[in-house]
Amino acid sequence: MRPNPLIPEEKSLQAELQGNTFRIEVPLQGAMVAELLHGNELVPVYLEPGYELSLSFNGDKFLRTLKYTGKGGNENNYLATYTTRFEDEEDYQVLPDNIKLKEEEFTAFLDYRRNDQLKSLDKYAGKNPVSDTFRNFLLAEVEFSYAKDKLRYHPLRQQILQVALTKPSPAFYTYLDKLDMQRPANLVSPAFVRFLQEYGIHYAQEAGYTEKDATYYKVAYSTVSQKLQGQAKLLAQAHILKQSIKSGHLQYTEQMLQDFTTTNKDAAVNAYLQQQHDANKAFAIGSEAPDFKYKNLAGDTVSLSSFKGQLVYLSFWRSDCSLCYVEQPHLEQLAVKFKGQKIVFLNVFISDNEQKWRKSAQGKDLQGEQAFVSITQQEELIANYKLEDMPAYFLVDAEGRFISQKARHPNDREAANDLAGHLQTRQASAK
User: Fold this and answer.
1) Which phi-psi region, left, alpha or beta, contains residue 162 (left: φ > 0; alpha: ψ -120 to 50)?
2) What would the DSSP string read from start to end of 122-187?
3) Residue 60, SS3?
4) How far apart are CA 221 and CA 397, in angstroms?
5) Nearest-5° angle of CA 234, CA 236, CA 241?
6) Residue 116 pLDDT exceeds 70
7) Which tens digit of pLDDT belongs to each residue from 306-356?
8) b/e 356-390 (16+ beta carbons within 10 angstroms → b)
9) Mean pLDDT of 144-158
10) pLDDT band at 15 (very low <50, low <70, confident <90, very high)
11) Do 392 and 385 meet the contact criterion of CB atoms below 8 Å apart?
């Protein structure tokens, strides 16, 4: 369970079987949704203060045999059925087939699913009374599942079908303005939280921004700050901040963090976001790339910082990496293409055998800068650049700061266009 919706860390309670029974007490300040995990099967559990739930199930068929009794039983029996149907019935699912529908047909599918869910709830509640709080929670689940799936339709369809991104019809997103974002029941709904994770990003993308733009997350943050209020605004801002801390530009992340912690009065959330930022800022876009010294083929000792003033396409590879050798000819072609421009292709060899590296590299007409890092420095370099898999590619700007920690591989047909774009941006900013 997640006691604070602004902090993603879960709190776990484990139950030990005593014979064939177990007991768990969950402290609550209000309604919330927890998750019951049995083996590999997981089911949401709706909780309100004062509930005394008893449940029974067959251990081999957990989800199919789960039954609740006691106070809260009606609510959770319906939630289990709702969840199972949502996950199992193809006519409820966006993937794999409904995403192929054209815009008007896809909207009709979502309308059908929402109406069917609402009728099902009314029919069940007519025979099995549920609390108003639960009903409002379920209505939020239905509404924001609809909203999130519609919000994701065009980009997801492009990704899955590998088709050009189609332009939505003028009325396609008008439903966003009709959503009630301030209902207290929304805050209990996982679907609402997932929707907010997409909400600001949607508006940034609609404005023409992509993850390559330094202000991508800042635009999303500014949008939700203008469009939302109260707890919904804080939730949306916090989600964008978490994404920016992980993948965004350091300068704008720090601006957003300062704004958020000034406005938000929840000290635990502010401390959590600050801790995440502090842990990631040394490796964020816009932060200074860790400097290191290496030997080149001439035997001279050079440092990464000596290339300030030029764009650096930095690659790491090792002798036992077959993909590195496959991609090396493409790297050579890329270096030839940009020869004479203010870009350096720095290829760093990670190995404990310098002589083998020299023997392999010498006598070849290799383009760019070939580098070997001493054994004593390799461990620190691997840690500083978080080198888990190789080859690994980075882009470092003329000031020695990260542009990308996941630059396109040299055999990617868009790699040259990316590099040309960064060179043009630098030339424009220098004027």
Assistant:
1) left
2) HHHHHHS---HHHHHHHHHHHHHHHHHHHHHHHHHHHHHHT---PPPPTTTTGGGGG-----GGGG
3) helix
4) 25
5) 90
6) yes
7) 999 999 999 999 878 889 989 999 999 999 999 999 999 999 999 888 888
8) ebbebbeeeebbbbbbbbeeeebeebbeebebeeb
9) 95
10) confident
11) yes
Q: What SS3 state is found at 394?
A: strand
408: helix, strand or coil = coil
Q: In what helix (H) or strand (E) does residue 313 lie, and over which residues does it extend? A: strand 311-318
Rounded CA gap, 387 and 392, in Å?
A: 7
- Which pLDDT value is given to residue 69? 97
At 338 the pLDDT is 97
> Residue 89 above 80 pLDDT?
no
pLDDT digits (tens, 9 = 90+) for 21-63: 888 888 888 999 999 888 888 889 999 999 999 999 887 788 7
Distance, in Å, from the CA atom of 258 to the CA atom of 278, rounded to the nearest integer, reads: 13
Q: What is the DSSP letter of 413?
A: T
| DSSP character at residue 289 | P
DSSP H/E element including 421: helix 415-430
The yes-or-no verdict on residue 84 having pLDDT over 90 is no
Q: What's the whole-model pTM score? A: 0.86
Instruction: Please give the Cα distance from 34 to 371 (Å, whole number).
Output: 52
The string of DSSP codes covering 327-385 is HHHHHHHHHHHTTTSSEEEEEEEE-S-HHHHHHHHTTS---SEEEE--HHHHHHHHHHT
* Cβ neighbours of 406 (radius 10 Å): 10
Chain-centroid distance of CA 168 in Å reads: 24
Contact status, residue 83 vs residue 62, Cβ threshold 8 Å: no
Place of tokens 């801790």: 275
